[in-house]
């Protein structure tokens, strides 16, 4: 690779995958049972080859990245998630809340030069209401008018609408008027109710996430989507999760306003959280991480972009993931907190030059993008 030098079937060693390969070549949608087999087969090479075939058909060698910054306005959270090491309660020495002045000052620092996208998610703190976010977004946009504001998980949006005494629709409308442009995909975790009751008891109802994502799309606000894997879930839970995302995307595309731009598989980080203290959960392996990328590319036929999220799986494995269906490395991701608090050992950021090198060394074309996947350069980016 990066191209497939031989017929697709020649990469497959598990004969049970051959009917799936035929579907993939015909462009047919895969079923729940197909998804289960993709997870259960030992033939990772075969699964990866099929995913790479789809990746090449959709994107060729193009691989995207963005210059982005992560920032959390508070880590105080009243919603208890057993897998989270980021959350703090009031009075905790770690607890913080950032003012609009704090955030604008942070964004003005030299290391943020060139940043095109601000990705903000945070805890659920009832003292923050709609007026805080309107003021924050307006101040950011006044100082940095070209900075794209990507803010709120779907559960976070619902929480802050509720504590503001607003419907989610009214809350979203006011945020968009103040400068909100898109939403990230976090907070989805796993949609299965029994699993949610064990890993994120404070946000058990998955329908909240799905309904709010669909509302964003209907309002013309694009979002991403995710799945948290590598904890206590089984293959059936993951296939169910992915197909619910696919179904929602079908509905959003039919309405023609906005939709999921990208899917990001998120590897559970097993340090400093309650879930890892009550269950024996090992770090995800490279095989598991690559499989998640490949299965997503094959099942999510209507979501254009699949990310290999280097923050959680490392730069080297993310690079290999480009051959397993991924066509996006996310971005520079300056100062990510949530995964690192839970034990991620990756750097706090990668430079534009590092991302370009990672992509090119794998044999792909590096393209700097904005949040809507418009590229900044007519020619491939140089380091």
Topology record:
Elements lengths: L17 H9 L5 H9 L3 H16 L2 E5 L1 E4 L28 H8 L9 E4 L9 H14 L4 E4 L2 H10 L4 H11 L14 H7 L6 H13 L4 E7 L5 H21 L4 E8 L6 H5 L7 H14 L5 E2 L3 H4 L1 H7 L6 E4 L6 H4 L10 H10 L3 E4 L15
Parallel strand pairs: 1-8, 1-9, 2-3, 3-4, 5-6, 6-7
Helix pairs in contact: 2-10, 3-12, 4-5, 5-7, 6-7, 6-9, 9-10, 12-14
Q: How would you briefly describe this protein structure?
A:
The chain has 383 residues and is of the alpha/beta class. The chain is built from 16 helices and 9 strands.
Description:
The protein has a three-stranded parallel sheet, covered by helices on one side. α6 (154-163) packs across α9 and α12 (286-299) packs parallel to α14. The chain has 16 helices and nine strands. With 383 residues, the protein is α/β, with parallel strands linked by helices. The radius of gyration is 20 Å and the shape is globular. The model is unreliable at 336-346 and 378-383 (pLDDT under 50). β5, α10 (235-255) and β6 form a beta-alpha-beta unit. The chain has helices at 18-26, 32-40, 44-59, 100-107, 130-143, 154-163, 168-178, 193-199, 206-218, 235-255, 274-278, 286-299, 310-313, 315-321, 338-341, 352-361; strands at residues 62-66, 68-71, 117-120, 148-151, 223-229, 260-267, 305-306, 328-331, 365-368. The two termini are 23 Å apart. The protein has one domain (60-368): Alpha-Beta Barrel (TIM Barrel).
């Amino acid at each position: 690779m990066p191209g497939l030098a031989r017929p697709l079937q020649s990469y497959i060693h598990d004969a049970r995958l051959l009917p799936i390969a035929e579907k993939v070549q015909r462009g047919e949608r895969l079923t729940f049972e197909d998804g289960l087999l993709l997870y259960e087969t030992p033939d990772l090479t075969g699964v990866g080859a099929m995913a790479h075939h789809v990746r090449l058909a959709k994107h060729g060698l193009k691989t995207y990245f963005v210059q982005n910054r992560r920032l959390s306005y508070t880590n105080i959270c009243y919603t208890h998630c057993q897998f989270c090491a980021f959350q703090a309660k009031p009075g905790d020495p770690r607890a913080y809340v950032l003012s609009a002045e704090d955030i604008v000052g942070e964004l003005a620092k030299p290391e943020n030069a060139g940043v095109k996208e601000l990705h903000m998610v945070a805890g659920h703190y009832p003292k923050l209401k709609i007026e805080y976010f309107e003021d924050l977004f307006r101040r950011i946009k006044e100082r940095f008018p070209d900075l794209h504001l990507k803010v709120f998980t779907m559960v976070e949006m619902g929480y802050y609408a509720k504590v503001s005494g607003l419907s989610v629709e009214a809350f979203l409308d006011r945020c968009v008027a103040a400068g909100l442009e898109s939403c990230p995909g976090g907070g989805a975790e796993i949609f299965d109710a029994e699993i949610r009751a064990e890993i994120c008891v404070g946000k058990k109802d998955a329908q909240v996430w799905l309904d709010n994502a669909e509302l964003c799309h209907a309002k013309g606000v694009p979002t991403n989507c995710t799945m948290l894997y590598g904890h206590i879930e089984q293959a059936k839970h993951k296939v169910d999760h992915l197909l619910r995302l696919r179904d929602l995307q079908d509905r959003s595309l039919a309405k023609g306003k906005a939709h999921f731009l990208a899917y990001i598989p998120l590897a559970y980080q097993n340090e400093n959280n309650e879930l890892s203290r009550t269950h024996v959960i090992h770090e995800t392996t490279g095989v598991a991480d690559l499989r998640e990328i490949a299965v997503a590319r094959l099942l999510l036929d209507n979501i254009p972009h699949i990310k290999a999220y280097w923050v959680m799986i490392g730069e080297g494995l993310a690079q290999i993931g480009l051959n397993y269906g991924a066509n996006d490395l996310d971005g520079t991701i300056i100062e990510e907190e949530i995964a690192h608090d839970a034990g991620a050992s990756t750097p706090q950021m990668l430079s534009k030059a590092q991302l370009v090198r990672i992509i090119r060394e794998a044999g792909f074309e590096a393209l700097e993008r904005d949040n809507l996947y418009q590229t900044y350069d007519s020619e491939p980016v140089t380091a």
